[in-house]
Design a protein that fits this description.
elongated, alpha+beta, Creatine Amidinohydrolase, Chain A, domain 1, Creatine Amidinohydrolase, six-stranded mixed β-sheet, five-stranded antiparallel β-sheet, 11 helices, 20% strand
Length: 437
């Protein structure tokens, strides 16, 4: 029989998935109370399943995370309950691998944090929080102690200088010798998606897709009147109306026959591009799609534009075919570019992980301004159960535009289970067509 927690998660996920099909109405996005409940249930499953697997894979016996109110460690922020917006005073979270008993969570703080981190500090008995932490470490005697420091990944470098000084000043000489960077563990926590998260993620990406389609329509765009800036702010307003948030300002741009115009008034015959993302239930989306503004009498886009989109779809396929557990971002980039060039495609690949953050932690697969190796972040290996924004473009000559070079820039969120890559809510394979009024 499934546990109560499992049943609650299933119910809330079913509600959210059902709601996603009605995103345009704005009245079925989960209310805040239900969002917090779902966040807590998803987080509970993460704590049940991930710490032991990830800590043992990365060889960390004790993981200490420290944050002060409104100066958050990015990892700590992902571990807070759905009703918490920040750490309280100084928050010290400790994961301890206790062998057959599994990994346990403790808070060296006056209060526990959620249901997982049990409080182990009584300020009335030991007023010095740092000394209480050192005493607690002694009681557990871990083989090593991981802390969030990294020169490579900003998201894994959450231990601030003052907190580092306070920590190291409290540790004994023997404890200091056991301290090491938990960089790979921090990245792994952030990048790994659970079964329960992947049940809800499609509904979130679908909401983003639905909003893009709304904005790329005659409801929001009148050729000859509407500007690219108007559409950008339409998207911002629509996100707010749906009681959602975005992690970056949307961009809308133009490519036009015999023109270098990138912004301004939208005209019939324009190829439009949007870069758009939302944050919902602590997960992020990042999507780039194209639309064509039909001329009077047209019912489809020129073949050259349709073929250009198909070329970037092919580049997506080439890239995801190179995904393999243990392969680094740099290795994936090199293999994908080599095959694309062999097929006559002019590629530019700049794919990144997505999840708790838009530009998330994990292997970098190219940069828009660097199609060679990316030291550090590009050397990180790919793991199973991770999600990516498949971001890239191909440059294609469009005959109907006099052989003009046009960039077809796509970005779609996908999930890699260790064997197969699937788009979380499909991908764009046909231009969105905007009909004239």
């Amino acid at each position: 029989m499934p546990s109560i927690n499992t049943c609650v998660i299933a119910l809330l996920i079913a509600i959210a998935i059902s709601n996603s099909s009605h995103a345009a109405t704005g009245d079925t996005i989960l209310p805040m109370k239900q969002r917090a409940a779902l966040i807590d249930k998803l987080l509970s499953k993460r704590f049940e399943t991930l710490p032991a697997t990830l800590m043992r894979r990365e060889g960390i016996a004790m993981w200490i995370l420290i944050a002060r109110e409104y100066n958050e460690d990015p990892v700590v922020k992902t571990m807070l309950p759905g009703t918490a917006h920040a750490a309280r005073r100084r928050t010290i979270l400790v994961f301890v691998d206790e062998g057959e008993s599994g990994v346990k969570g403790y808070a060296v703080a006056r209060y526990g944090v959620g249901d997982f981190f049990k409080p182990v500090w009584n300020p009335e008995e030991q007023p010095d929080q740092w000394q209480a932490l050192s005493d607690f470490i002694d009681s557990k005697n871990p083989a090593n102690i991981g802390i969030n420091t990294s020169s490579t990944f900003a998201l894994a470098d959450g231990l601030t200088q003052a907190e580092y000084v306070g920590l190291m000043g409290a540790l004994t000489a023997e404890q200091k010798r056991r301290v090491k960077s938990a960089e790979h563990l921090a990245v792994s926590w952030l990048e790994t998606r659970t079964i329960e998260e992947m049940e809800i993620y499609p509904s979130i990406v679908k909401i983003a897709h639905d909003i893009i389609a709304e904005g790329f329509s005659s409801d929001a765009i009148t050729s000859g009147q509407t500007t690219t800036e108007d559409v950008q702010w339409w998207y911002r307003d629509r996100i707010r109306a749906l009681r959602l948030a975005t992690w970056f300002h949307p961009s809308v741009s133009i490519q036009r026959a015999n023109s270098t115009t990138k912004s301004g008034i939208i005209l019939a015959g324009d190829l439009l591009h949007v870069d758009f993302g939302i944050t919902y239930l602590r997960l992020n989306t990042d999507t780039q799609q194209h639309a064509y503004v039909l001329r009077s009498g047209e019912d489809t886009a020129p073949n050259g534009l349709t073929n250009g989109l198909a070329t970037s779809n092919r580049l997506q396929d080439i890239l995801t075919s190179k995904f393999k557990v243990g392969r680094t971002g740099n290795e994936i980039l090199r293999a994908a570019r080599l095959q694309a060039l062999d097929e006559g495609i002019t590629p530019s690949i700049y794919t990144h992980p997505i999840g708790y953050h838009g530009h998330a932690a994990g292997p970098t697969i190219g940069m828009w301004d660097n199609q060679g190796d990316t030291p550090g972040r590009g050397d990180f290996p790919m793991h199973e159960n991770t999600a990516y924004s498949i971001e890239l473009n191909s440059t294609v000559m469009v005959p109907e535009w006099g052989g003009q070079a046009v960039k077809f820039k796509l970005e779609e969120d996908a999930f890699f289970d260790g064997e197969t890559t699937t788009y979380i809510d499909g991908r764009q394979q046909a231009l969105i067509l905007i009909k004239p009024h």
